[in-house]
Amino acid sequence: MPALRDHRRIVVKIGSALLVDRATGALKQPWLESLADDVAGLMKGGAEVILVSSGAIALGRGRLGLPKGALQLAESQAAAAVGQIALARAYSEVLGAHGFTAAQVLLTLDDTESRRRYLNARATLSVLLERRAVPVINENDTVATTEIRYGDNDRLAARVATMIGADLLVLLSDIDGLYTAPPNDDPNARLIPVVERITPEIEAMAGGAGSELSRGGMKTKIEAGKIATDAGTAMIITLGKRLNPLGSIDAGATATWFLGQGSPVTARKKWIAGSLDARGTVHVDAGAAGALRRGKSLLPAGCTRVEGRFARGDAVLILGPGGEQLGRGLVAFDADDAAAMLGRKTHEIEAVLGYTGRTVMIHRDDMVLRGE
Question: Sign of the CA dihedral 301, 306, 310, 314?
């Protein structure tokens, strides 16, 4: 059986019902402190941890005195506006007690579907992780509408995991794993400890929605699993309401593991190589071609010509000095800016563009060379 401690970049999804007392609307402080203990232990062991946390609306509705039951959109957005401040403060305090900095990141569906905004979000998260901060991510419920929202944080967590190349997604749930049937209804239901691949039979086992504090259910968790595992990220569903819910996993707590299909790096390269239409071409000199083969990013100094009307985040072909195709990647600049920087050194970028931009034309993480 895999172990949590063997993974280096871990996304943890936390539902509202785990954080907020349904009867009082108050934060479950002892539980949150135990989660922070777990996160600190993983971080001190060398892992990077990203939290995708619900709870803003649940906290805010209590503080605003909103009634139980379904809320109108404007009421939900108002509750989120109040709750986000309270939630951010709570995470900052419990993680700060262990010497770690919490960072609030609010996302909408567009931030992970638009390639330009996807790259911006990923770059921000990468800097936070490099600085050993703990990003705390939530859907931006104060501005998201029905048409542009995820609707549950299971799928948001899966999108975040694929965005940053996490090797593990943990869904802390009100159930300890996937069963062959709803265990409350069927006494013969069996826990499935490992799912090698999500098949139609596995999807058929998913149940319905959860409580009014949680828009998710087993169905959304399986959908999240499809997103994550297809991108090479493993996933766990386990009971979250116990104290130290992450530490309990390696201590032998019941859980269901969903195995990733390959690795995140392999899945991302496959996506870049075969799932995106090239919108342009970047020609490079012999020096840059050699650097790419040695695993380096493509710098503007090694670029000789660009073709096409591409935007930042679009896929482009990379051609060598003889016109041979070296590979393809996601370009970090619009076509006009890319053309203006041809042959330029890194320290010249700001003077050319008039602002401090990216320092690479195509980052190695956003590139796949032929033969890879």
Answer: negative
